[in-house]
Write a structure and sequence with these properties.
700 residues; alpha/beta; Chitobiase, domain 2; TIM Barrel; Alpha-d-glucuronidase, C-terminal Domain; 3 domains; eight-stranded parallel barrel; six-stranded mixed beta sheet; 11% strand; binds beta-D-glucopyranuronic acid; alpha-glucuronidase activity; Xylan alpha-1,2-glucuronidase; carbohydrate metabolism; polysaccharide degradation
Length: 700
Amino acid sequence: DDGYRLWLSYRSIEDAAVAKKYKAALQTLVIETESPTLTIAQKELEQAVAGLLGTKLITGKNMGPGTLLLGTPKSSPLIAALHLDATLGTLGDEGFLITNTSVKGTPCIVIAANTDVGILYGTFHFIRLLQTQQSLQSLSVASTPKIKRRILNHWDNLDRTVERGYAGFSLWDWHKLPDYIDPRYADYARANASIGINGTVLTNVNANAQILTEPYLKKVAALANLFRPYGIKVYLTARFSAPVEIGGLPTADPLDADVRNWWKKKIDEIYTYIPDFGGFCIKANSEGQPGPQNYNRTHADGANLFADMLAPHNGIVMWRAFVYSNEVTDDRAKQAYTEFKPLDGKFKGNALVQVKNGPIDFQPREPFHPLFGAMPNTPLMVEFQLTQEYLGFATHLVYMAPLFKECLDADTYTKGKGSLVSKVVDGSLDHHSLTAIAGVANIGNDRNWCGHPFAQANWYAYGRLAWDHELSSEALADEWIRMTFSNQPAVIAPTKAMMLASREITVQYMTPLGLHHIMGYNHHYGPGPWIKDKPRADWTSVYYHQADSLGVGFDRTASGSNALSQYAKEVQELYGPLAHCPNKYLLWFHHLPWKYKMPSGESLWDALCHAYYNGADSTAWMQRQWNSVEHKVDEEQFQHVKSLLTIQHQEAEWWRNACVLYFQSFSKMPVPAGLEKPEGTLEYYKSLEFPFAPGIRPKW
Ligand code: BDP
C-alpha cells in the first residue's frame, strides 16, 4: 500500500461475524433518480462494499432484502413517504440522516437529506461506520456542519512549486488544464467530500495576478466543474495590485473609480466561467504583498472593494489578518489586533477576517489569537496550518488535532465564561450566519499526497473538526487508524497513544515552556535559537527568546510589551500572575531568571533541560510504539513510517542538544544530574545551518 488511497482504502473486513452481518444488510442500493452527485455516492458505495466485503452491491429502483435507500424527499417518492420532514427540516443544505426503517414492509437502511450533497456526506459517513466496524442496528445519525465554509488553502504557485509544501509539487497541472483532467483531481475531491470539506482556494496567498487572466480562468473553470458534484466550491487568491499588473491601470487604490470598475468587470467575467465561484482569499500589506495601505486606505476599504463586487454573485472575501509591519517596532504578536480591532464593524456583510490560530505564526504552540472574540461585529474565521512548516515538515510525525482543539476550545471570556474560540468561529457567540474555517493544505503530488503517511491524519482531522469541532482528538485518531491501517486493538492502542502524544512531544523537543520561533532561518527547519542580525528583528530567534545572562522569555505583561492586555480580563488573570500562568505559556508571556523556581520546585533552567530531554526521549518511545505494530499493518507503510521515526528521533536529539547548549551559554548552569551531557559543541550545531532544508543531517 503506497498510501494513495488515504483513509478510503476499503481493506477487506477480516472479522467474519461483522462481514456476515454487513453482507446481509448491504445487497441492494436503491436510488430513484439520477444526478452527478448521486452517481458519485453510488460508485463510492459500490467500491466500498466490493473492497470491504468482496460482494457486489446491486443498484436499482426496487426494494429487496438488505436494501440501502438513498434520496431526498424531492427526488425520491420512497423517501418522501417516510415523512422525515421534522428531522430533515433541522439539517439544512448539507446535513444528513441515517436510520433503520422499513419501506412497504421491507426493513432497510435509509440515508436521507435535503440535497444531493447532503446524501453524499451521509454516504461517506455511512461508509465510515462500515470501515470502523460499527453496528448497523438502531442507526440514528442526524448530522449537520457547525461551520458553513470548510476550506483548504493551497499555497500553490502557478509554476507548481508549493510554498511551504513538503509533499511534492502542486496537484494543479496548469500547463495541461483545461484539456487534460488528471484523474487525481477526482480522488482529491472524493477525499475532501468524505470529510466534509466544501471549498478550496487553489492558489498561494502570495498571489500571482496571472491566475485572473482568461486562459487561467478557463483552467480554473475546468477544476470547478469537476469539483462541483462533490459539493466543493473553488476560490482564488487575488493580488491586490492586479489592476496595475494585468489591467494596465496606474493605481490599485481601492477607492479609485477605474480600479473599482476594473475589479467589477473582472469579477463579473470570473462568474461567466464559474457561476458558483466561492470568492477570494486575500493577503494584503503583509510580508511585502501590496494592499490598501499603499494608498493610505484601511484593510476594511480593501476588503469592501471585493465584497461589493462579489456580493451580486453571492461570493465572499476572506481577508487575512496576518499582518506585521517593518516600520512598527512594537511586539509582532500585537500587530494584527492593533490594526484590525479598530476596524470591527467596518467590513461588508460578505467579508470575513481570516485569523491564524495564534498571534505569531503557526508555532508548535501559541496561545489563541487575541482577535478571537475582540471583533464581535465581524465574522472571524480561524486559519490552521496543516502543512508542517514549523513542525518538522513531512518528516516528523505530529498529529495536529490536539493543536487545533487547543485553540478551538480556548476560552476568550469576551462574553463571559464559555466564549470559546470555536463559538466565535461557528458564529454562535456573536450571531453570525456567515462562518468559515481554513486549513493550509499539506497536499502535493507525492504518491501518498502528504509526504508522511501520518500527515494524512491532519488533513482528515481538520476536515472532520471543521464539520464538528466538538469531536475529540482521540475519536478522530481512532477513526483514522481504523480506516487507514487496521481495526485490530493491537494496532489501534499503540498507534493512537503515539499520535495523541506526538504534538506535545514535539513541543518539548522544539519549543518547551512557551518558547517560540527559534527554528532555522527562512526554511524553518531544525533548531536555530542563535539566529540574529537579519533584515528584520522579528525574523530572528533572539527577538523571541530574549535570552541573556539573567534569564529567558518574552515579557508580554504590563512590564513588557503588554500584549497580554489585548485579551479579556479573565485571560489576563490566567496568564499574567506567575502563580497562575501554566508552564506551557510561561516564556511566551514572561521573561524569567534562570534560577526562577518552578511550581515543581526545580529551577527554570533545570525544567527547560528536562523538557528537552523528555521530548527527545519520547521520540524513542514513539519508535517502540510503532515497532509493536510490525506485521499487523501494511509492510510498505510500516517501513516508511519506521524510517521517518528514526529521522525524527535523531532530529529531536539535534534540537535538544543545540538548544540546551545554546541556552547554557547564557545560563552557565550545568545540565541537571541524571541527564547525559549533549554531544558535540554549540559551534558544531551552528555550523549545520544550511540554505535549503532538509540538508545535511547531523551525525554524531
Ligand atoms: C508564514 C510563511 C510564509 C507565508 C506566510 C503567510 O512562512 O511562507 O506566506 O506565513 O501566511 O508562515 O502569509
